[in-house]
Design brief:
By secondary structure, the protein is an alpha+beta fold. The protein is built from 11 helices and 12 strands. It folds into 4 domains: 107 residues, no CATH class; 86 residues, PAS domain (Beta-Lactamase), CATH 3.30.450; 75 residues; 143 residues, Heat Shock Protein 90 (2-Layer Sandwich), CATH 3.30.565.
């Protein structure tokens, strides 16, 4: 039997079996027993030579030749016994060092050493298959971890970061190469380790800070206990529940109000024709003005309800390739109250529903223009609205900036029906947010921090849109 090592493989270091000073090694004991077995033959040879009465020098030479022949036979026997064992030792040593290329050759069944060699080869093949399966499973786990939108981190008992997926790197602005091995205090994540299981953790800034639920678990790695932290975004689920509640409310209100508007409008029209001819001109004018107010407010209320029904009837996005530059230019041309400045940037191609994204941008640009031209603006003559965009690793960010008064009550911006404008409906930002989340993106509004008074609205969309996923915030530009 022989072994088949890989080329240029480093020398295999075998573990030493602790030697005893009172006992010889296996090879020495075996060699000693073989020599002892040869002593009777040497004695028999000497007796035979004595009977022949040969010259003593000849007897000595013959005895010496017999001893040398027996020593050669012992060497051959030792070679046949120890070589297979050494080969098997090399195979087992290579398995210990995760090298599964060694195999024992020439083994046969119904042979003690052959059976042992075949079993060792079978063990090596099984371990090699298990190792390949473990590597494939680890690669799959790493791929799943990187594709997860939930941040995943793991810390050892000393608080050093041992595991970090791509989502956690984006959320906490960490680089995998520099962050692994550092303590939570160095990374300013001590608060994360101290968060209890199922605890809520708000992260981010601006109007839409993302709320995460922290799930804690323990596992052992090489016998050392570690803490696994998985963050689940509960903000998207809460917003979806809130949106569903608003939809139910709108459905009930719409049904009841429509049932009242139709007869009110019909009665107002019929009353105008039933006014007696004896009524004076002034009284008739007052009566007509009252009926006009009833009809006008009825029609206005009907339009109001129809606008809110857009929140209930947003269709599923029809995804296709969209050039961001051309879409932004079309949106800018629709705003006629002022000139919308478009920043110079490279064109970005995303996968989205062009009509829905355009509607979301129209709402954001309209809000920006109304803020810049509003009575609370510092200088309506110099009203300024700008659109800029950029692409990061996996998402595109469209920013709409204005020089209006900025945000004063940011907590209610995405609440349906809420508006601070005399003629507002309160659905523009809510609709933009719903469109963004249907594409797996987000909408965020916050006051500008570049030295200019005003608001900054950001629409973030994944380059390859995935529906109903809330993506983490990207860095500003």
């Amino acid at each position: 039997m022989a072994s088949e090592p890989k080329p240029a493989k480093p020398h295999i270091k075998r573990l030493a079996l602790g030697r005893s000073g009172r006992r010889l090694s296996f090879e020495r004991r075996l060699r000693l027993w073989l020599y002892l077995i040869g002593l009777p033959g040497l004695l028999l040879c000497w007796l035979t030579l004595q009977q022949q009465k040969l010259d003593p020098s000849i007897e000595t030479v013959l005895l010496l030749l017999f001893a040398l022949a027996w020593a050669f036979i012992v060497s051959l026997i030792m070679e046949q016994i120890t070589r297979p064992l050494q080969t098997l030792a090399n195979v087992v040593a290579s398995l210990r060092e995760d090298d599964y290329s060694f195999r024992a050759r020439g083994a046969r069944r119904n042979d003690s050493i052959g059976d042992l060699a075949l079993e060792v080869n079978a063990l090596a093949s099984m371990l090699q298959a298990q190792r390949a399966g473990a590597l494939e499973a680890m690669a799959l786990v790493e791929r799943v971890m990187d594709s997860m939108q939930s941040p995943v981190l793991a810390f050892d008992p000393e608080g050093r970061l041992k595991l970090l997926n791509a989502s956690a790197g984006r959320v906490f602005n960490l680089d995998t190469g520099n962050a692994l091995g550092r303590t939570a205090e160095d990374l300013r994540l001590k608060y994360l380790i101290d968060t209890a299981n199922d605890g809520l953790l708000p992260l981010g800034s601006g109007v839409q800070s993302i709320r995460w639920m922290v799930k804690r678990a323990s596992f052992r790695l090489r016998g050392v206990p570690h803490t696994l932290l998985v963050l689940a975004d509960v903000g998207a689920a809460l917003r979806e529940e809130e949106r569903a509640a608003w939809k139910r409310l709108i459905r009930v209100l719409g049904h009841e109000i429509n049932n009242s508007l139709a007869p009110i409008k019909s009665i107002a029209e019929s009353l105008r024709g039933r006014l007696p001819a004896t009524v004076g001109v002034e009284e008739r004018d007052d009566f007509d003005r009252g009926l006009e107010v009833i009809e006008d407010r009825s029609e206005s209320l009907n339009r109001f309800l129809q606008a809110y029904r857009q929140l209930m009837g947003l269709p599923v996005p029809k995804l296709a390739a969209v050039n961001l530059s051309s879409l932004v230019h079309r949106v800018a041309q629709l705003e006629t109250r002022l000139h919308v400045v478009i920043a110079d940037a490279e064109d970005v191609k995303i996968t989205a529903d062009a009509d829905q994204i355009q509607q979301a941008l129209i709402n954001l640009v309209r809000n920006a223009a109304e803020a810049a031209l509003g009575p609370d603006a510092d200088d309506a003559v110099k009203a300024h609205v700008e659109i800029a965009w950029r692409q990061s690793e996996s998402e595109a960010t469209i920013a709409v900036l204005d020089n209006g008064p900025g945000l004063t009550n940011a907590g209610n911006l995405f609440v349906p029906f809420y508006t601070t404008k005399p003629n507002g409906t309160g659905i523009g930002l809510v609709l933009a947010q719903q469109i963004a989340e249907a594409h797996g993106g987000t909408v965020e509004l916050r006051n500008r921090t570049d030295g200019v008074t005003g608001c900054r609205a950001e629409l973030r969309l994944p380059v390859s849109a995935r529906r109903a996923e809330n993506r983490p915030a990207a860095t500003n530009f």
